[in-house]
Specification:
alpha/beta; nine-stranded mixed β-sheet; Aminopeptidase i, Domain 2; 10 helices; Aminopeptidase; 26% strand; six-stranded antiparallel β-sheet
Length: 439
């Protein structure tokens, strides 16, 4: 079978566009669906009966924030198994509260909650915008949901001047209730701001044909307006918000679009990984199992198929930081642009086994791509992924891998320009390999 190879410059250019167009999980899912539509995948509604055929391509979404795309191959699932790649659409950020308006000392602010394990200090002094989903009624009383994105910088969280906090460079704990509500504008006299009306006005810009009577609720998130970029004296780095884990969503998507295998292939991008995955759309929820049961059937066909299937859980890995190298185990220090990272944990925070690790190393050898491994220091904890959750739910062989990343969970993260292309090439090979059986 001919090996597929992505052009690095083109691939990274398209990656930057995808990152900029995906400020929220809703927008990321919409963009993934748009690319699947363009590639000839058929959209399926979970509410409808499905009529699937061999040799076809399909996708379905749930809550507008999680998506599963798959190919049926020859349709002989119990004999072939599925080649599956998993990632997640959400990232740590600041989420607007239900009754958010704050008017303090002449400033109009919005109250926020911290979504996920965000690194808060980089959120200060950044040009922020607001995006998400709003649900509204039209003049006939019908409910609608629409995505909105203010795009322009409309808010900021200013730092306190060093003159008023001389210990700021030594110790400065951040109180998420008190210190991080963004400032959106100054108030004039006794002006009262109607936040909901601002959303209505924005909705009319986003969808001029809509006739919103009342916005009943929303899920809105602040994000950094600085665009994703290739940086460094030698163009070594990708700098962007939400690399964790839209980087894996994009590489998995491009691999699926490039796959030409007769084997059934699947990509799942779950929401809510950063907050535990226990939801209708998360990896600890029923979404993937529901879809697989509709494709394969329940009981013995499902069990047989899963025992011939393999899942690669693709999430970012901690690159070693040159200023903090002692935070890594000395023998496990992943470096950007030196290959994807196999993630291993004795306590099953990662789902990698010796067999699934060997399988991935075998793919790397075939693709002539270097590979690294990560184990956290024994005296430190590590993060978690959708890998163990999905493995436990389905009983499928699972591997946790990721691309080396610095500043993970910051408002702007850093990855290598060579790594994303290498991962896409590997995942395409994974989808296309005729036999991945371990005997």
């Amino acid at each position: 079978m001919t090996k597929h190879t992505f052009d690095q410059n083109t691939f990274n250019k398209n990656l930057l566009t995808f990152l900029d167009q995906s400020p929220t999980p809703f927008h990321a899912t919409r963009e993934i669906a748009r690319q699947l539509d363009k590639a000839g995948f058929t959209a399926l509604n979970e509410r409808d009966a499905w009529q699937l055929a061999p040799g076809k391509k399909y996708y379905t979404t749930r809550n507008g924030s999680s998506i599963i795309a798959f190919t049926t191959g020859k349709g002989n699932y119990a004999e072939q198994g599925f080649r599956m790649v998993g990632a997640h659409t959400d990232s740590p950020c600041l989420k607007v509260k239900p009754t958010p308006t704050l008017q303090e000392k002449g400033c109009y602010q919005l109250g926020v909650e911290v979504y996920g394990g965000a690194l808060l200090s980089p959120w200060f002094d950044r040009d922020l915008s607001l995006a998400g989903r709003v649900t509204w009624t039209d003049p006939q009383g019908q409910l609608h949901s629409s995505l909105i994105d203010f795009r322009d910088p409309i808010a900021i969280i200013p730092n306190l001047a060093i003159h008023l906090d001389r210990e700021a460079n030594n110790t400065h704990p951040i109180n998420p209730q008190k210190d991080i509500p963004p400032i959106l504008s100054l108030l004039k006299n006794d002006e009262k701001i109607d936040f909901i009306q601002q959303l209505v006005n924005r909705l009319k810009v986003e969808a001029p044909s809509s006739q919103p009577v009342e916005i009943l609720d929303y899920e809105l998130f602040f994000y950094d307006t600085q665009k994703a970029a290739i940086i460094g004296m030698e163009q070594d780095f990708i700098a962007s918000a939400r690399l964790d884990n839209l980087l894996s969503c994009f590489t998995g998507l491009q691999a699926l679009l490039a796959a030409n295998s007769d084997s059934p292939c699947l990509l799942v991008c779950n929401d809510h990984e950063e907050v535990g995955s226990q939801s209708a759309t998360g990896a600890q929820g029923p979404f993937l199992k529901n879809v697989l049961e509709r494709i394969i059937g329940m009981g013995e066909p499902m069990t047989r198929t899963m025992q011939r299937s393999i899942l690669i859980s693709a999430d970012n890995a901690h690159a070693v930081h040159p200023n903090y190298a002692d935070k890594h185990d000395g023998n496990h220090c992943p470096i950007m642009n030196q290959g994807p990272v196999i993630k291993i944990n004795a306590n099953q925070r990662y789902a990698t086994t010796s067999e699934t690790s060997a399988l991935f190393r075998h793919l790397c050898q075939k693709a002539n791509v270097p590979v690294q491994s990560f184990v956290a220091r024994t005296d430190m904890g590590c993060g978690s992924t959708i890998g163990p959750l999905t493995a436990a739910e389905l009983g499928v062989m699972t591997l946790d891998v990721g691309l080396p990343t610095l500043a993970m969970h910051s408002i702007r993260e850093l990855a290598g320009t060579e790594d994303a292309t290498n991962m896409a090439n590997l995942l395409t090979l994974f989808y296309n390999e005729e036999s991945l059986t371990i005997i």
